[in-house]
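Problem: given the chain below (144 residues), write out its structure.
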Amino acid sequence: MTDSFKTQAVQTRIYEGKEPIKFLSIFQSFIIFKGGISPGYKNFMVESAIEDKTFNPEGIALFWVQGFGLENMQAIQVIPMASSLNSSYCYILHSGNTLFTWSGNLTNASNQELVYGVLEICFEDHYGLNRGSISIIHIVPALR
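Solution.
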């Protein structure tokens, strides 16, 4: 088989958090929520006596915003603790009907622009939140 492809690899391994731009561009913009809603997931959580931390619109959730442009941006739910924050990235904190955005002091204007894109595309279109029902508070980094 490798001879037919002139010794070029036909498969590759991609590690979570190290995805190349071409791979992420397949999915365009998306949001990843922790947990699940399937009966199998719920039963597993009950049987294992593990606290279910599935995203709840009335609860608190922290999303790490990443991407390489407005055509390719992601919001990935992380543990809502200060230790999850990194000054090189932007985040969205969802608390009930309020969204807080936080941009680390090492982010640039293009990183911060991604937050606005994620708010419009992922939170409004995919999750059904609209600006009339939520408050958005932007926390900007201090000047260096």
